[in-house]
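Renewal narrative, Specific Aim 1. Our central claim is that a sequence can be written position by position from structural information alone. The example that follows is taken directly from our test logs and has not been curated for this report. It begins with the structure tokens describing the chain, in the order in which they were read.
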């Protein structure tokens, strides 16, 4: 018992120290970077606002959400705080500017986060289609994966093609160098990551797992995550020569020996440092590698931070 209490005290000290490291860095550093002052007039149509004929896919800094479909997961006030990573619906996220969705499914096509379940993936599809019907030039990366510990939904690729076929941008390396206008009226890059079923093949309506990569750092320590994200990003090729999407997640997550197990207070330790992260990428010389930037509980400022850098790239200011 005594050793457990001592361990928890050490954990609290480590968390406090790491929070101070990021706070001090923010106090001593600039959060300005090319495009940081830019604010889209309409976040729902920010890609259209930047001019689809000018914006190439590999220039975009894609604002994404982590565990996107968890707004209603679990039981409110009981299990939900341990698994909820977003408070907005998929449709609301898209309206506020989110363009990469992280969707976890299990064998009966329900959304899940670990062992907790929520609504059917049908709800996600309906939300995405509603958004697409109300916009003209917004491209969405829809990542759907079978959650760890679960089985693939049967015949899921056929289901997705039936639901989304008219919108799907087929797997093709040349897409990265194309403008949004060249891809329209197709609107969705759907990355399907089954656990056991065959991966999508070249030319397929779906993109295989290797086209959306990340280096997940499972930690509740904010400075550890921040520095780890910088290190992994620095090892990537520039977006101009990359034939895959690379994701950085501005998140901190509860771990087993954490004295706090609810998602929101833990991820809140890093949540406000997105602009600082982008500025540090410039300071260290590898901002040209930033591409997909994801977060828990996405908000307007996070979207603006990504859109601003995209605008700067399109205008040749980076």
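The sequence written for that structure reads:
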């Amino acid at each position: 018992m005594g050793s457990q209490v001592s361990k928890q005290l050490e954990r609290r000290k480590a968390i406090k120290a790491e929070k101070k490291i990021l706070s001090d860095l923010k106090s001593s550093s600039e959060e300005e970077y090319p495009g940081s002052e830019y604010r889209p007039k309409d976040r729902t149509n920010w890609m259209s606002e930047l001019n689809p004929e000018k914006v190439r896919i590999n220039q975009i800094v894609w604002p994404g959400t982590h565990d996107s479909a968890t707004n209603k997961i679990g039981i409110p006030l009981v299990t939900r705080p341990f698994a909820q990573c977003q408070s907005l619906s998929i449709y609301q996220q898209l309206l506020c500017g989110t363009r990469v969705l992280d969707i976890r499914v299990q064998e009966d096509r329900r959304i899940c986060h670990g062992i907790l379940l929520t609504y059917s993936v049908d709800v996600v599809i309906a939300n995405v289609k509603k958004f697409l019907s109300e916009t003209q030039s917004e491209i969405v990366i829809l990542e759907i994966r079978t959650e760890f510990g679960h089985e693939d939904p049967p015949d899921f690729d056929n289901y997705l093609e039936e639901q989304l076929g008219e919108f799907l941008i087929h797997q093709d390396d040349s897409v990265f160098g194309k403008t949004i206008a060249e891809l329209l009226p197709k609107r969705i890059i759907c990355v399907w990551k089954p656990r056991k079923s065959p991966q999508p093949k070249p030319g397929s309506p779906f993109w295989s797992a290797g086209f959306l990569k990340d280096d997940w750092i499972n930690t509740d320590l904010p400075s550890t995550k921040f520095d780890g994200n910088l290190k992994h990003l620095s090892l990537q090729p520039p977006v101009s020569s990359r034939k895959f999407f690379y994701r950085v997640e501005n998140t901190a997550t509860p771990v087993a020996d954490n004295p706090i197990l609810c998602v929101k207070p833990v991820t809140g330790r890093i949540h406000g440092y997105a602009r600082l992260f982008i500025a540090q990428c410039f300071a260290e010389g590898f901002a040209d590698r930033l591409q997909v930037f994801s977060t828990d509980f996405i908000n307007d400022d996070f979207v603006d931070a990504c859109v601003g850098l995209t605008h700067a790239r399109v205008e040749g200011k980076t």
